[in-house]
Amino acid sequence: MVNGGRSLTKVSAFSAFTVQSKTMEIFLIKALQLMLALSILVLLHEGGHFFFSKLFGVRVEKFYLFFDPWFHLFEFKPKNSDTTYGMGWLPLGGYCKISGMIDESFDTEQMKQPEQPWEFRSKPAWQRLLIMIGGVLVNFVLALFIYSMILFHWGDDYVATKDMKQGMAFNSEAKALGFQDHDILVGTEEGAFKTYDGDMFRALSTAHRVDIIRNGKPMSLQLPGDINMLGMFKATPRFVEIYQPLRIDSVAKGTPAAKIGLTPADKILSINGQKVETFNAFTNEMGRIDDQLAAATTAKDSAAILNAQLTVLKANGDTLTTSVQLDASAGYTRMGFVNYNIVRDYKETHIRYGFFESFPAGIKYGWNVLSGYVGDMKYVFSKEGAKSLGGFGALGSLFPPMWDWHAFWLMTAFLSIILAFMNILPIPALDGGHVFFLLYEMITGRKPGDKFLTYAEYAGFTILLLLLVVANLNDVLRLFGII
Questions:
Q1: Of all helices (H) and strands (E), which one includes residue 360?
Q2: What is the layout of strands, in order, in the sheet containing 209-214?
Q3: What is the separation, in whole angstroms, between the first and last Cα of the chain?
Q4: Is the dihedral of CA 211, 183, 173, 283 positive or negative?
Q5: Lower CB count within 10 Å: N or C terminus of the chain?
Q6: What average pLDDT values come out for the chain (483 residues) when binned by 10 residues?
Q7: At a CB cut-off of 8 Å and minimum separation 6, what does 156 contact?
Q8: Alpha-carbon distance 441 to 434, whole Å?
């Protein structure tokens, strides 16, 4: 009995170690993808400033990947070069220190010296403008190029909503607007849906008419045209999801599902007395348990919540009612089975692009991503939108848990567009802030004073730091289930 106890202890310890190792592996893979993507984007962004500076004879004193407060990882200065190249230790971006310019280096002493012909401040306003938009221009063109090359190499694969023959599952808000489970979404007055993605939600949120197929017959529903898209996403259950029948595909060894003898031929009827006819409903019930678990104040309460009651229809026709101790080691509750993905049964659309065809298609794709992102910015200023802000943790979570070059380049292109848009915002300390003051100078003929520009840079830098703190604090709060 003692030996058996030791064996069980060792097995449990080994299982916990395996889970932790796998979790760490996934974390490292995502972190490496994020670091590589950001390094590429930052280097090329700063390279845009560097290119136009050199083009117009402006001296670049430093070219750094990442920031280097107090110390740097390495730096070097080529012979007969005015520029020191290096890498900092703080991976929050990078910088290109341009002579005669008030920037994040806050080098006000240089600005007190007589103006030199190789300095930024001595150049015409139009040249200074091109220097400042160089980084944004490179990021935007890079995103379009990456999208084009993705379409050329991999093509475009998706399952159209009209080909999802079991249709969608809708929440109560959607059903109040006339939707029914199994409705097949076709499009709106603005055009046909492509697939189940953010664009589909965006189109539904602003649509006044949606075309569907119900029981094999085409029909239309009237919509208000002003549904809150963020609310559609964050609702539990979501406004609309792909209808997924509850169908066990496989059961992992050692999981709660395996311990109670679930097999792919079995069918789960209810959990904690709630009927679950679809995987959508099952997922919602598991989410409800997660919410209860997050609100639990004692270990006894947590154990009671994790002890779920399950009703199962066995393959032989018998009905089994049993209790199952759910697993919460992954930070959320899980049963331990994989549901069959109904999307596998649907017709997949594949579009191939030739080399020259890929460029207009990539430009259209990138422009659609940018316009969607810009349109969604209005939600940032709402209470729920502020909670949705994410930092490096949120960005890292967007990458897949396994190294996938297709997914990596899609995310890199998306981040490049975000970097371009965020940098062109008219906030001091960002490129857009400098562009704003340069446009003011070009229109009025008056150049803002150095003292004003310095104070504006401090104000902008403070705003950016606050946004950075809020975004990364949200990541921490999400990790602990607080928001």
A1: helix 355-376
A2: 191-192, 184-188, 209-214, 217-222
A3: 45
A4: negative
A5: N
A6: 41 45 76 90 93 94 86 88 89 84 68 83 92 94 96 95 96 95 96 93 95 96 92 88 91 87 89 90 88 83 88 88 82 79 93 95 93 78 65 74 89 92 87 90 87 83 79 67 59
A7: 349, 350, 351, 353, 361
A8: 11
